[in-house]
Amino acid sequence: DVQLVESGGGSAQPGRSLRLSCAASGFTFDDYAMHWVRQAPGKGLEWVSGISWNGARMGYADSVKGRFTISRDNAKNSLYLQLNSLRPEDTAFYYCAKSRDYELPPPCDYWGQGILVSVSS
Amino acid sequence: QSVLTQPPSVSAAPGQKVTISCSGSSSNIGNNYVSWYQQLPGTAPKLLIYDNNKPPSGIPDRFSGSKSGTSATLGITGLQTGDEADYYCATWDSSLSVVVFGGGTKLTLL
User: Mean pLDDT over residues B93-108, rounded?
Assistant: First the structure.
């Protein structure tokens, strides 16, 4: 069975950094693009970033461009999201999601359970 | 303000049919596949429909999708209480090179 398990969330002050990880299992990790999608409490889904199967292509939402960095380690079946210069509006549940394809366009066919990032002073 | 426009809420009685619309533009829905997701309260989103009208394995045939021009529609027939959830459309935006989601539609059974 496909499993995506996020870790690394928690509380941070504005301007600080966090690093999210997503451990993947149950599929051939390096065959698929991966994404991060977030959801602020009580709000809708917002795509944050995606990375192609080999890491050659990455995309970011305008709201995080220049502050967040996506990466992957295919040898470790892991996806990462480095969150720098955090803002209160970055407070959300962050989901790791597997693409059905090796490039960035959706859909995402499997999702992790999500992890909360809370940014406040 | 989402790039894709969905009605905030829809409602219908158990056993009835409901449709949820998703409106975009030529740079997103008009030239890319649409997918739909169901998010039950307190859970992660689940893929319902991909490539406009294809259900993944295990999705009941009560759920269907269609696309025409720059709009897409999710249809749900034989509504059940377990269908009460938030529904989101998504696609790729070729001009922005980003994934875009609709604002979500809350389905309530009367």
Answer: 96
Note the pLDDT tens digit of each residue in A80-112.
999 999 999 999 999 999 999 999 888 999 999
Alpha-carbon distances, residue A18 vs A67, A70, B98 (angstroms): 11, 12, 23
- Render pLDDT for A1-37 as a digit per residue (tens, 0 to 9): 999 999 999 999 999 999 999 999 999 999 999 999 9
> A45, A57, A101: which to substitute to probe chain B, counting the most B Cβ within 10 Å?
A45
Give the span between the Cα atoms of A76 and A54, in whole angstroms: 13
Hey, which residues does B4 pair with through a beta bridge? B102
* Chain A residues within an 8 Å CB radius of B33: 105-107
**CA-closest candidate to residue B12, choices B58, B100, B78:** B78
Q: With residue A17 as reference, give the H or E element that holds it.
A: none
